Amino acid sequence: MFSAVVDNFDAWRKQARGLLAAERAPSAVRFVAAEETQPSLFGDEAAEAADSAKITELNSPPRRVPPAFLDLAKHVACHRTPGRWNELYRLLWRLTHDEPRLLEVATDDDVHLLRTKEKQVTRDVHKMKAFVRFRRVETPDGERYVAWHRPDHRVLPLVAPFFSRRFREMHWTVMTPDATAVWDGEQLHYGPGANSAAAPQGDALEELWRTYYAGIFNPARIKLKMMRREMPVRHWATLPETTIIPELLAAAPRRVEAMVRAAAAAAPGAAAYLPEARDWASLAAAAAGCRGCDLHARATQTVFGVGNPRARIVLVGEQPGDQEDRAGRPFIGPAGEVLDGALRQAGLAREELYLTNAVKHFHWQPQGTRRLHKKPPARAEAACRPWLAAELDAVGPKAIVCLGATAAQAVLGRDAGKARERGVWQRSRYCERTLVTWHPAAILRAPDAPAAARMRADLVRHLQMAQDEAGIS
Ligand code: URA
Ligand code: SF4
Q1: Distance 293 CA to ligand 2 centre (A)
Q2: Where in the chain is the domain with CATH 3.40.470.10?
Q3: Which of 56, 91, 338, 415 is the least buried, fewest Cβ under 10 Å from its Cβ?
Q4: What is the CATH topology of the domain spanning 271-470?
């Protein structure tokens, strides 16, 4: 009987390859899960097994197995049951011994067993992605983010790469009872497991998270059953938001408005989110995380400006609409079509321009199943103005065209006497040449066709004025 101790997928794969090449049948092989062994035993047997695997590996090329098996095996490897390594080897043996299509036979006992384990692991991976909450810790080396989580299975190696992509800029540590993953900004490192006492408690991040959660949590949409299913009670202890859930449930829909109002009063404005570097890319990246006012809570994403960051002409709209909210880009819906038509007539290409909005999140109210555009409140326009100001400063255009009153107010300010006068060059704090014109959506709402045609002609003419001013021909 050949026996080997393995503690991870790569170790198992290496062993299994050697064993297959040596034609060792599953009945003559016994894998021992490392977590079941004493440390001394582990050391001896692992070394011995590695030797035998090396010998056979040298003599024969690895067998071909379906890629689906590798994926299945990587997941099952993280399952907590000790029998997994032997079960995987048995399946591998059969796949490479006259049953290459075995994985398609869902009713087969071996396949069924491992598929079930795979599913359990996959589910656990999703949960870990959803439930891990980082807490910020100040260290002499800077900020560190720490989380503690107790997964059902040993899924950390499957999830850590995901965190390293998502939180690439942060230095973070995820501790589980089995293992710890550390991301230093460049590389992932794994270490021994930790118990929950080692995880920092009650720091500033937790407070921040609680506020954030109250801001985005919509009690009107709470589905208790779904929540229980998705959020096993066992996890609740590590989730700071659970301290407010019962409260939210009790007060339900009536509370939404109050929460939104409270969030608005406490809103720091975009200034709190401005990055140190003011180049366009840094601004866009930072704006994606803006929580400067309550608008973000019901919108899908920040819709930042697009186009040429050195453009001579900047067009400023009001705020993203429904389609822009979903796509993350300004002026791609019906108003965008009108604008495109006018630009074409004026002989301007989008690539020559920089296109943005006064307010970067979609403000809406429900009507049936639709999300109806709502004019952004003045406080949102004020809260969001630092983004617009930073964008305009970064681009430094020769001419600014304000599409509609909200843009005019954002660029020219409340006190600009002529802020609403269209087609007249005005001076703003961002540009000597600032012009107000119709909003394309106003053209769509025009009372009749002749009015729409007049407005459209105005818009085209004003765009041409900007083009002349900016010296684009
Ligand atoms: N209306 C706007 O003001 N901006 C958009 O991005 C879309 C519609
Ligand atoms: Fe920030 Fe502006 Fe969005 Fe408010 S609307 S959250 S200020 S980006």
Answers
A1: 5
A2: 271-470
A3: 415
A4: Uracil-DNA Glycosylase, subunit E (3.40.470)
